[in-house]
Amino acid sequence: MQPSPIIQVLSRYTQNFYPVVPFKPGVDRLLKMDFTAGNKDLSQAVLDDTGLFTQYIAARLQAAGCRYGIGGYGEHRTIYSRSTHFDGVGSPRRLHLGVDIWGPAGTPVYAFMGGMVHSVAFNEGFGDYGATMILLHQLDGIPFYTLYGHISREDIKNKLAGEYLIRGQEIAHFGQAEENGQWPPHLHMQVILELGVKKGDYPGVCAYEEREKYLQNCPDPDLILQMNQYL
């Protein structure tokens, strides 16, 4: 089967993308994070307490000597049981549609290419995105969006729809728990082909039975990040 046009286009331009977070290949190390039911070290008691959850992430990174934890695309996660935000009408939402990069609050986030601010929002509520930014891009005539969730509230304060951001520009920072939906500091990055009428928000997690539809609309952000190769 031929890869979709957006995957072909993103793959064609990978060498031109600016790093989304500061990372030195060959120097910095990455830790693959596992938030499936197979991770027996992550108890419900830890998940229910944002402070303990944050300590868990920091301890894992320190023990492994890694700058960031990373992963999650297409992962069926148990961690969303910590919030009713993911309960839904039918099956609970558990399948992750983006990549999470876990690291210290304040870590800068850069524009991988030029783009326009589509929308920003502060998605309040325990377990939600908190401060969120969506950018609109175009490559070879194909429009697509990137979503940055769990960032600092200050980052969206003066961002206006239609504002243009250039490649390599510092656009955001990993947010603190009180501004990122009560999560350990991290960046949720997601690629979205069709956004519909949504502004400042788009599901980052879907029900398992909807995985095909959502994964088709949200290709792997590592096409842009190019970080999994260093795991």
List keywords for this structure.
single chain; 231 residues; alpha+beta; Glucose Permease (Domain IIA); eight-stranded mixed beta sheet; two-stranded antiparallel sheet; globular
| Overall tally of domains | 1
CATH class: Mainly Beta
Oligomeric status of the shown chains?
A: single chain
Order of helices and strands: HEHHEEEEEEEHEEEEHH
CATH topology: Glucose Permease (Domain IIA)
Query: With helices defined by DSSP (H or I, 4 residues minimum), what is the helix count?
Result: 6
Instruction: Note the main sheet.
Output: 8 strands, mixed
Helix/sheet category: alpha+beta
Q: Roughly how many Å apart are the termini? A: 27 Å
**How many strands?**
12
Widest sheet, order of strands:
1-2-4-11-8-7-6-9
Proper CATH architecture: Distorted Sandwich
The unreliable regions are none
User: Overall mean pLDDT score?
Assistant: 93
Helix content: 10-25%
Our estimate of the beta-strand percent is 25-35%
Can you tell me the CATH superfamily?
Glucose Permease (Domain IIA)
- Gross geometry: globular
Cα radius of gyration in angstroms? 17 Å
